[in-house]
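Hey, sorry to bother you again with one of my protein questions. I've been staring at a protein lately and its backbone has me curious. I owe you a coffee for this, so here goes:
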Amino acid sequence: MSRLAGLGPSISDGNLGIQGVDGAGSRVIVGVCSVGTANQIVALADIDEIRPKRGYGPLANHSADQLAFGGGVVYTIRAAGDVAGTITPDMANPVAPVVGITGTTLIAAAVLVEITKAGALGVGNFKYSLDDGDTFSEPIALAATYVMPDTGMTLEFAIGAYLLGNVYKFAVTAPKASVSSIQAAIRAAFADQTRIYEYIHVAQPSDAAMWTALAALRIEAYTQGRDVDLSAETVAPGADADAWVAARLLEKAAFQDVGVYLIAPHAEVIDTLTGRQEIQSLAGRILGRISGLPVHIKAAQVDLGALPGVVVVAPFTINTDGKKVSSYNNGHALQLENAGFTTVMRHLGSEAYFVSEDRTAAGNTSDFKIIPNRRVILKVNTLLRQAWLPFVQRAANPEDLNASLASLVKAGTRILRGMQTDTEIVRGQVQIVPGQDLLSTSKIKLKVRVVPNGYTKFIDWDLGLENPLSA
């Protein structure tokens, strides 16, 4: 088209080197809860949104921890709770009159019912606790039934004369999702092409069968062009810390994966939603911290402080003076860490609990045995995918690829330089692999190498006395 004399400026874009969406800190939690449609993504940005959108249950609790300790937005997916929770009465409960619990539990709890005024139904009173007696309800009149709010459970009191001080205990587990239901929920996250996630966490106790399924899902996502890691938590310990650790080591022996994180510790914590003292997995608190940090910073970095709200790591006993004493120690932590679990430890002179190491389930010789190296490489990969997508189906000179694809190399290098400026990496380089036959393969091969940060896990020093008068 001809034009008259004048000016004809054009405005170029992309010169500022602004990065695309990297997904760092963006996470999905899948699990069982009492509100919402199964396999549907619901974003939460505030703790006040949890009750109306997710109700009660493990998914709600983990979402609260993630928001409280990591901030940002949490994407939640309700999985079908096709494995019912259990209600187990304590063997030492009074045999008459009988107190029982019915219903379909929504939460995990250590239920304790104590008679606070002797008498029959309609005369006596009781109070109940969901955290084994750390906190109690107000006194309630004895009746044939009492619905404990927001638990899915109903207390049932038999006819009889209740004695002052009688105590009834029940161990309650939360409902769970089967492996197939978790797979369906995670695939719902994969199906949403509008969002980029760094990892997906399964909010329930799990075993090696679940871990293996998660590793397969990670590979499945990668083949679809999505870089995402998966996270799971172990089963809670019983009364024997040694036996629990030994069982976890045996369970882990046959499993390794660079992109699966296994969070081991459970502890009595101050519940983020209710304020009760409950035994819960520390996965929500640990992963929340990780999500709130730059990709190259460890959650184990000591000056970040101890994990908040942790009363005592399970299992524990109660002294005669009422103090709770953990039987989990740093020896257990070292065994779990070496096996590929993320866990917690105590530093000498401190009563608080710190993350011992940001560990993936990879082997000890893997480049990606620590989570920061995985986070860094996932961020690099995610940004490079976006930076290089516009070059797909472009023409290139097969006799001089270096010159023809210089802008492609420049786009990738800009990503690495930006991360270097932010100290997320030490340096990085993009190269076009020489000797390629673009005409016959229609494929470009690139080599990207990144130098990661190192971490001062140990500090050794030589300390001694010196005589200044000595020769």
About this structure: The longest strand covers residues 109-117. The chain has a mean pLDDT of 93.
